[in-house]
Amino acid sequence: MRRRRNLWGKPCDPRRQLYRCLTPLLLAALFGAGLWLGWRQPLPQPAPAARIGAETLLLLPRTEQAADVPRVLVYTTHSSEGYAGEQRRAGVAGGVTVAAQSLCDALNELGVAAIYCPTLHDTDWNNAYTASLNSLLEYRQQYPSLEVFIDVHRDAALAGYTTVLANKSGAYAKMMLVVGTNASLEHPAWRENKAFADSVAASLERLLPGILRDVRTQSGRYNQHISTRALLVEIGSTENDVAQAQASARLLAQAVADSLAD
User: CA 119 to CA 259: how far, in whole Å?
Assistant: First the structure.
């Protein structure tokens, strides 16, 4: 029997030819089986912790959900009050608003969510507290989470007393906390405000001894009936410059944050 030869004149091996024919068929069969098995196998599901979107928010603790919900409102009833070198003009923001903004910024940096009310309330000086109360009510309605209200003021110069405190870390404006009572207007919870003021005062003195002039109770209410954590703070006097007031405002922010953490 004559054997078949290939193109180069060499004899053909029947077994090799069979192998060459069957190999593509076997590979095709294996590939098809793999596709069928992959279709039958369910896709892996992401772990619950890896899911994003609304489900993740619902699983977070309440404190993490509300991290940016404001707790503190900073405002200025006497918005035109200024510091050394400034001339007070009705309807024009004074340096006290710069100190108030610094207080708000520092609170946020410390993780205490705060907002600043930029409204100028003393265009009519005699009705400034009425105007600021209207702002407080509006903000509280918009942000029910608010619990601390801080009214920033600047005191007048004090004869025979300096409101500048200087040390190696810099110069500061001495502060006084004023707490309204029920002596002239209804204010049944004023002692709770006093307790909060005392807590902030203690924190201030721990941070920088001598920075606090006093915690003073007055017969006025100063809109502090809005909350049991309402403060009026006198940051420095006309003897201080704005930079000193800002330094003290940042210190006050730390004291407030410490008191809220207790």
Answer: 27
What is the pTM (predicted TM-score) of this model? 0.75
Residue 148 near residue 103, CB atoms below 8 Å: no
For residue 208, the one-letter residue type is L
Identify the bridge partners of residue 227 per DSSP, sorted by sequence position.
none
pLDDT digits (tens, 9 = 90+) for 55-84: 222 322 323 333 469 999 999 999 999 999
Give CA torsion, residues 19, 21, 26, 29, to 10 deg.
Answer: -170
The DSSP 8-state label assigned to residue 196 in this structure reads H
Cα distance between residue 122 and residue 129, in whole Å: 8
Nearest to 139 by CA among 118, 108, 122: 118
Which DSSP string corresponds to 162-177?
--EEEETTEEEE-EEE
By the 8 A CB rule, do 97 and 118 touch? yes
